[in-house]
Design brief:
Chromate transporter; membrane; mainly alpha; Chromate_transpt; 8 helices; transmembrane helix; chromate transmembrane transporter activity; 2 domains; 193 residues
C-alpha cells in the first residue's frame, strides 16, 4: 500500500476506526456493573457520533440481548459492523475489551495484596447501589425509547407482576436464579401469548 493510500485511509476510514476504538475504549474503561448498566452510556456515544438512530440502537440492544455473550460486547460488534463492516466490528470490540484486560491485570495485583482490607470491601459494597441505579435507568430508557410514557396497559401490568415476583422470590425467599428465570418465562408465556 502506497504512502498516499495510507494517508487517505487514515483520513477517511481510518478516522472512523480510530473513533470507534476510542469510543468503545472509553466505555469499556468506565463500565461498572456489566453491560446493562452501561447501555445508556453507549447509547449517548452512538447517538452523539450519529452511528445509529435511537430506534436502530433500541433494536440493536434487543438483538444483542438475545445473542450469546456479554451485551456490551455484542453492542460494540453491532455498532462497529453497522458503521464499518467486519473490520469496524473487530475494532469496536477490541476497544471494548482492552480496558477490561488492563484493569483486571492491575486490580488482580492490587487485590492480591490489599483485598482483605476493610476499606476495600466497604468501597466495593458501596458500588452496588450505583450499579443498580444505572441498570434501572437503562431499563427505563429502553422501555420508553425516547418517547413519553404512553400509559399503563395489560402488558405493562403483566411485566410489573413478573418483576415483582422476581424481586420477592430473590430477596425474600432466596430462590435460585434458575427457578426465577424459569417461572418468569412461564409467566411471560402465559401473559403474552
Amino acid at each position: 500500500m502506497g504512502r498516499r493510500n495510507l494517508v487517505s485511509l487514515m483520513e477517511g476510514e481510518g478516522a472512523v476506526f480510530l473513533m470507534l476504538f476510542w469510543t468503545f475504549f472509553k466505555v469499556g474503561l468506565i463500565s461498572f456493573g456489566g453491560g446493562y448498566a452501561i447501555l445508556s452510556i453507549i447509547e449517548r456515544e452512538v447517538l452523539l457520533q450519529q452511528w445509529m438512530t435511537s430506534v436502530d440502537y433500541t433494536q440493536a440492544v434487543a438483538l444483542a440481548g438475545m445473542s450469546p455473550g456479554p451485551i456490551a460486547t455484542n453492542i460494540a460488534i453491532l455498532v462497529g459492523y453497522k458503521t464499518s463492516g467486519i473490520t469496524g466490528a473487530v475494532v469496536a470490540v477490541s476497544g471494548m475489551i482492552l480496558p477490561s484486560v488492563i484493569v483486571v491485570i492491575i486490580v488482580a495485583g492490587f487485590l492480591f495484596k490489599a483485598g482483605r482490607e476493610r476499606w476495600v470491601q466497604v468501597a466495593l459494597y458501596g458500588l452496588k447501589p450505583m450499579v443498580t441505579a444505572l441498570i434501572l435507568y437503562a431499563a427505563i430508557r429502553m422501555a420508553m425509547n425516547g418517547q413519553p410514557l404512553l400509559g399503563i396497559n395489560i402488558h405493562t401490568l403483566a411485566s410489573l407482576a413478573i418483576f415483582v415476583f422476581a424481586v420477592i422470590g430473590i430477596m425474600k425467599y432466596r430462590l435460585h436464579p434458575l427457578i426465577i428465570l424459569s417461572v418468569s418465562a412461564l409467566m411471560g408465556i402465559a401473559f403474552f401469548v
